[in-house]
Prior knowledge:
Mean pLDDT: 96
Helix content: 10-25%
Distance between the termini: 13 Å
Number of strands: 19
Number of helices: 4
Number of domains: 2
Oligomer: single chain
CATH superfamily of the largest domain: Diaminopimelate Epimerase, Chain A, domain 1
Structural class: alpha+beta
Largest sheet: 19 strands, mixed
Amino acid sequence: MKGTVFYKMTGSGNDFVMLDGRSTRPEQWPRDRIVALCDRRAGIGADGLVILTPDEPDTVRMTFFNSDGSRAAMCGNAALCSARLAAHLELGPATGMRLLTDAGVVETRCLEHPAQAEIRLPDALVPKPVPSIAREPGERAIWLGTVGVPHLVVLVDDVRSVDVIGRGRPLRHHPAAGAEGANVNFVSEPGGRTEPWLIRTFERGVEGETLACGTGTVAAAVALAAQCGLPLPLEFRSWGGELLVARATLRGEVATDVWLGGQGRLVFRGVWEG
């Protein structure tokens, strides 16, 4: 059979094309080929490409590319999907393995639910206020931190009314976000005490809104805990409708024992003739 065997997965609406690294290598995927693969009209369609390659025992390397072909250090929802698929492909045990990412080592474990997993991320600095970014009406606070990749967290009155593209694009490129820019995560309070927080994301590398952002959810949780005194864990509902849970221990300006739980669901598999 010619072509490339692929697995299409979703993490709370954040979707990926996943490849088995035993039959392909990252070097075989230049930018234009990744863009063609992720194209939602002429390709498979995805927010990014993930290649899973066996490394040491119970260890898998996760190579991640955004849909524009740029390589990214980390993606939380891609890691959740990788935990499920790596176990499915018998690259490591479902009870626990390690993912080697460009942002460091991520511990994983699959949960009893067939489409749920947890990942433990490297320690992260607590997001800090960014006084150089002027807030617009409806914005209560803006914080900047790095969880795998840089994230701006914008606390707003109502995330449902935010112009994610119109506001997210200039913030993503704001000088305060660094030379390569940052993801922009808009969050608002739940409607009731037992309801999850709401989150929407403008994601760099996709250059538009995605339905979920795992590391952005963690950045938001840590920012809310450190800056607003909220207790962890915190539960968030992604714009894709699924729930993500972030927990960590704050030690001064550092978040340790950082965990993210959420969806990693296999949608379909097939062969790409590209």
